[in-house]
Amino acid sequence: MACCHHDHCAGETPGGAPNSPAWRRALWIALAVNAGFFLAEVAAGAAAGSAALLADALDFFGDSANYAISLGVAGMALAWRARAALLKGWTLILFALWVLGSTAWHALAGSLPEAGIMGAVGLAALLANAGVALLLFRFRQGDANMRSVWICSRNDAIGNLAVMLAAAGVFGTGTGWPDLAVAAIMGGLGLQGGWQILRQARGELRQAAMPGLAAAE
Predict the structure, then answer these.
(1) Helices (H), the chain
(2) pLDDT of residue 7
(3) Which residue range forms the structural domain that includes residue 73?
(4) Contact status, residue 161 vs residue 189, Cβ threshold 8 Å
(5) Residue 12 within a domain
(6) Is 145 domain-assigned?
(7) Is residue 198 part of a domain?
(8) How far is CA 66 from CA 7, 106, 201, in A?
(9) Where is this chain's protein located in or outside the cell (predicted)?
């Protein structure tokens, strides 16, 4: 890859080189964890009748796809990494809209989820995602592609904690409203995270289209 006018190559970021062994290793670990918990939470969410667990499962699926895309573009130029981040940002927004729609459906159906299953699965997922988020913390200030992975992992850990709080609320109130409230919050987090990714990726695409911009700043 050709270098820019500064003393570092174009595409290098504060989070580290976009194709470093440490970055790729972190992505593979995150991919394995998210793919495994997607399958686990689909089964648990269906068994428990929980909108929050199913929303979290879909989030795990989206993140697994995102990590796979990140691995595929890790060694490419900044413009291609930014395009991949755009795809991930739009995917996150679409998943968030699906979560909000599913939440509305459960609200109309008046279903009551199983608090015990929600709490146990939420705790296991929280421990796994906290480990992944800690692993990816050093890359949070990287390019849009790196930042998107960090945002997804952070949102996952927050979502898992929220699922546990929803389980406690369902158990304490005997209603499904805590589950629905958490699912709605998770949908809102997805929308916010997707917008953050899109905004940074668009900026990087403009930067890639104007190679002299960085030298002029």
Answers:
(1) 21-48, 51-73, 78-109, 115-136, 144-173, 177-209, 213-216
(2) 32
(3) 21-216
(4) no
(5) no
(6) yes
(7) yes
(8) 31, 27, 14
(9) Membrane
**Number of domains present in the structure of the chain:** 1
Q: pLDDT tens digits, residue range 50-99? A: 888 877 887 787 778 777 777 776 666 767 777 877 887 888 788 788 87
DSSP string, 90-118: HHHHHHHHHHHHHHHHHHHHT----HHHH
* 103-155 tens-digit pLDDT: 888 788 777 788 888 899 989 988 988 888 888 887 777 666 677 777 777 77
Specify if 120 maps to a domain. Answer: yes
3-state secondary structure of 13: strand
The pTM is what? 0.62
The tokens describing 43, both together, are 């089964």
Which CATH number covers residue 76?
1.20.1510
Between vectors from CA 26 to CA 89 and to CA 189, what angle results, nearest 5°? 30
